[in-house]
Amino acid sequence: MSRWSFVGRTDELDRLLSAVTGTEGRGLFFSGSAGIGKSRLLREGVAALPRDRYAVWWIAASATTAALPFGGLVQVLPAEQPQGLSPAGILRWAVDVLQQQAAGRRIVLAIDDAHLLDPPSAALVHLVARADNATVIGTLRDGEQLPLPIRALWTDDLVDHVELNPLAPAETTRLLSEILDGPVDATSADRLGRLSAGNPLLLRELVFAADRGELTRTYGIWKWTGRLELAPNLTDLIDTRIGQLTPGVRAVVELVAFGEPLGLHLLNQAVDPADVELAEERGLIVVVRDDRRANVRLAHPLYGEVMRRRCPVSRTRRLQARLAELLEQVGKRRRDDLLRVAVWRLDSGTAQDPALLLDAAGQAFARYDVPLATRLARAALDAGGGFDAAELLATILMFADRPDEAIEVLDAVSADIRGDRRLSRWLTVRGMVSYWGLSRESTVEEIAARRSTLADSADQARVLAFEGIMRLHRLDTGIALRLGQTVLDRPAASVAARELARSTIAYLQAAQGQLHRSATAINQVQAEAGRWRADMPYLQLALELARGTRLALAGDLAGIDAIVADEFADLAGAGDFRLGTGYLAILQAYAARLRGQSDAALRTSLEACAVLATSRVYAGLAQAERAQAAALRGDGAQAAEAMAEADRTHAPGMAVLYPWLEQARGAVLAAGGDVPGAVKHLTGLADRLRADGFAGHEVHVLHDLVRLDRATAPIGPICSDGSRRTVAQRLAELSERVDGDLPPLLARHARAAAGDSADELLAVADGFEALDLAVYAAEAAAAALDRLRRRRSPAAAAARERLAALLGRCDLIRTPALQAGAPALTEREWQVARLAADGVTSRAIAERLYLSARTVENHLQRIYSKLGVAGRAELRAALRAIPGHEGGESE
Ligand SMILES: Nc1ncnc2c1ncn2[C@@H]1O[C@H](COP(=O)(O)OP(=O)(O)OP(=O)(O)O)[C@@H](O)[C@H]1O
Ligand SMILES: [Mg+2]
Fold first, then answer.
1. Residue 210 — pLDDT band, cuts 50, 70, 90?
2. Whether this model's pTM surpasses 0.85
3. Which ligand is nearest to the CA of 6?
4. What separation in Å is there between the alpha carbon of 60 and the centre of ligand 2?
5. Nearest by Cα to 321 from 346, 296, 297
């Protein structure tokens, strides 16, 4: 097994190193549970010590060495010990040996698992720790007996003693990527991190125990879909922790394993309270008190895995049925009690009540727990739940990316469609599955035709609302708007139908640049969530799409951060509600991209592609965002590849997303070096957006043309005076129609570029920076610098500093706007320039590069003139202002 790199623990490592290298010379011991990473930390610390100043001995105590006197120090002391010395004499001899070998360097004893030291070794360690020129560091495992001389190390104040904590979630995620040698999707990392409770050894075992099919890689991102399989190692590890249990304590742990979190009150009714106390004392369970109840959980999530795995099927079922009974007896009090009872009934094979199952399935779906909702709805249908169960199951299957099964389920109950209510529900669910799940665009006409047979206004409104949002997606925007309005005008419409219609309208308003009105509508949909969630949980997607589009078009990156951090994102991630997770990841990538965080943008967009790979709804959009991220990094090949994927996966029924895809295509062309092609494409796109009335998108596309230095290019139709508007003029015009702070800034950027005003460009850069739009800010500053340099203006130096600072905030970014003015240095010139910027003299540069001093001088002169700087003093900033280079380092 290859050893992966060390992750995190920077504070602990610093602390360990300063324990050795600090002036006080006090040592340090880490305590912690098995596998938490003590040995590894110690080894990393020791490896970092310079051997010319420290004589380091590594001592690994073990059960074998513990049985022999000085067994722990076999690696340290000479094999031959002098005969006839008293025990104290041997100790003194051993210290002398160490002093001799150290030859004046500071002695460092690093003792792994010091609790396993044999008594004489422990005594020697204590003695060494007392010496002035020695430091002792080491590890101890929690809960073990300690040799007295070791414990005396801190009671005598010779060393510090600290607890090594579990890895933080972000560190677990990084460790996972190390173990798997590639990034891991956020949900899997979260699940595995939680199961391992930040313990690296458990994490490793969990990953190695996973079956091949359970760990899959899509677009480079690992995903863990597995039920957990416990490797023998892991089970042993946990067995030693759980130990032998009396039947009473076992009953407690088992009930908690199947029922956690379990009310203490409930548990005490089922078992002997004395056994509950015993289990708590032994550290097997913990009692967590929140405001009103005391809940019991297992002390480690993996205990539950082992207990559940070990429990025979018949016993498991008995326990689950018992739990269901208990909860039914005390009465279901909390909202999720019903769900828990249903799951226990289902798992124990005692679920006979379709109404209970259906209710529970609805609850699970309302929390976006797709797998659980699927199971419960399927069980409800099997238990005789009929039409309602079929409707719910089909809806959930659609969001589990299983549209074919969904259609089957629906068609099987088509004979049960009695009455308009059922017909309207059946039509809408079937329409949704067929339109989005199977990409059948004719669905719209089909449901429109049957809609008119419905007599009841509320039933009609529901179908109208669905037809409206489908029409929106396939770009029948005029009809979509009218249908949405019709629904809002019908007092009989249900809350869900009304809010779905409002989401449709909010989306259109955003695309049209009416961002304020769109925000008002979105807030209204959100405010009604409590009234539509149970009926139509997936309305959240329509809401997120409208909201996300609005925020993206407004350039409101903080707003995007907020929804990405919102509860829905967590629920969707945990419940495998992929369309939700995937869409939010796209938004997150977008925000990272505009901030110039190109690493995060690429990684997150890849994650989105991976999550969305099984459905066609947002797959094209995710690929387009990936293409943008790659283009931002100047990676034309990956950008083109992602764009091709976007075209392959984009569903025609998602036509409304074309502005994003086509905007990406422009960026891809430019990144591939075809700037004229990109300009032509974006010009055509701007015309199309204008014709479609999508002013909210149009301003961004026009701004892309400004970024490609086309502020003065003609655009749009020929006006009555026979001339055409320029990009800058059209932007100025739109900035008065499109809401928000951004359009005036985009227009100002265009005006400054058209007027060649460096001062204005710098002011625009400030404006972009204030909105956190770092890429645009850097591009505006680069354009200013380019103009100043060409005029040989003394203000260039300040502009260069400004650009360098902006680029310093970004990861690698390489856009045409940044490249355009950037001076092109040859490889040789780069080498010379970097060294000179680092303060290496010309003579030393000449020696290092095997050149004559004169040649170096010639190079430098050429470099200065290319960069437009007066001399060495400005060189560093000038190099840093060149995008895509670590300008300051001479490696
Ligand atoms: N910060 C880390 N980065 C990378 N790998 C780690 C890290 N911490 C621990 N590991 C790996 O996790 C595994 C367990 O760590 P380690 O052996 O250090 O645990 P331990 O606390 O010493 O356990 P024990 O009490 O059993 O001795 C090892 O394979 C180790 O390399
Ligand atoms: Mg260890």
1. low
2. no
3. 1
4. 9
5. 346
